[in-house]
Amino acid sequence: AELALDAVLTVRQDKGEGRQPEVDIKKYAKVEKIPGGDITDCRVLKGVMFNKDVVVPGRMARTIKNPRILLLDCPLEYKKGENQTNVEIMKEEDWATLLQMEEDWIANTVEQIAAFKPDLVITEKGCSDLACHFLTKKGISAIRRMRKTDNNRVARACGATIVHRPEEIQESDIGTGAGLFEVTKIGDEFFAFVVDCADPKACSIVLRGASKDVLNEVERNLHDAMGVARNVVLDPRLLPGGGAVEMAVSHALSESASSVSGVEQWPYKAVGEALEVIPRTLSQNCGANVIRTMTKLRSQHAAASGSGAGSDGTARDGHTMGIDGNTGEITDMKQLGVWEPYAVKVQTIKTAVESAVLLLRIDDIVSGLKNKGGPGMGAPKKSQIDDGENVDSNMALAE
Fold it and tell me: Where are the residues of the annotated region Disordered (predicted)?
């Protein structure tokens, strides 16, 4: 739960007063599963990590403090023409001239990049050996063929802007929000870390475990927890769990039904009885006496016009009484600390009502199928021996 809440609060981005914040956990909170280690080693980074190494490991720095990061989505290599071009070379010097032109173009591109003094260049495309040579001479580390999604996360974490052409680079495009760039070998693979960011709006969640099955299970639980945390951040209203809300609404509908006469009160009673299935199921799962538990819970909600006194003498709101999922006893959910998001409760009731309406609309078709029999069932066969006239003629001749 702490990992999920930390990740959601990290990627949260306020849009101004009166506007709902943006919490895109699918795009900016990535889970990295690394086999090995212990579950307690799982953590949320103040930045991002990705499975990459520098282009020239022996000559480019793998650890940079307070790096200036430049993000590109263009290649650092000589561009090939879109159309086929034939060049006729008459002299040996012309061939050397063509190679020199290519080298000059790459050198000019690197000079444009080096003018802004970046410590790390990350590009989504390729980086030629010649470009790596010039970058190394300038003391610049480079990472090539970066995923678009990872590049976006790095941009959010360090405050950089992805540049499309080297000629368009500006000082504001350089990311200076990261405190450390480091390449570390974990297992058999190298991972690059851009961490210790001042104001990260993207993060990586590192999961460690003994096996892939354990990691997959932890990842599923983490995604569920992040979804709950995101709902709470977007709508911070909470309701007591343990079936307390369903029982309170059921009691309110029952009281409303008493003020309505005729068949119009049937929907009130039907919906109220349907909502009681939640506390009833909780009681059944705990092995408690369902009838006694439900009767006692109804009486407590019926008596809860305001605040009452519990057995321990403390004031309790009867509307927060629900089923303890561990013991099966009726407990104050407020004191137990069991809460559910308001948005989830509302969506649950909406889905139930819409499903009921959908079934009522096709009620005639369902009834028709039941009367006619299932698909593929033919007409019932007649008995072959009704009377003496249906006896097989061959059998009669044989006799």
Answer: 301-327, 370-399
E strands in the chain: 29-35, 43-44, 48-50, 63-65, 69-72, 120-123, 141-143, 162-163, 180-186, 189-195, 203-209, 238-240, 307-309, 315-317, 321-323, 330-332, 339-341
State pTM to two decimals.
0.72
- On whether both 25 and 134 belong to a single domain, the answer is yes
Cα distance between residue 299 and residue 31, in whole Å:
47
Which of 326, 348, 370 marks a domain boundary? 348
pLDDT per position as a tens digit, 108-142: 999 999 999 999 999 999 999 999 999 999 999 99
- Domain containing 204 equals 2-77+99-234
**pLDDT tens string 235-272:** 889 999 999 999 999 988 888 888 888 888 888 889 98
What string of DSSP letters covers 197-258?
A: -SS-S-EEEEEEESSHHHHHHHHHHHHHHHHHHHHHHHS--EEETTTHHHHHHHHHHHHHHH
Tokens (6 digits) for 302: 């019926």
Is the pLDDT at 347 greater than 60? The verdict is yes
Task: Retrieve residue 388's tokens.
Answer: 């003496």
Is 44 within the bounds of a domain?
Answer: yes
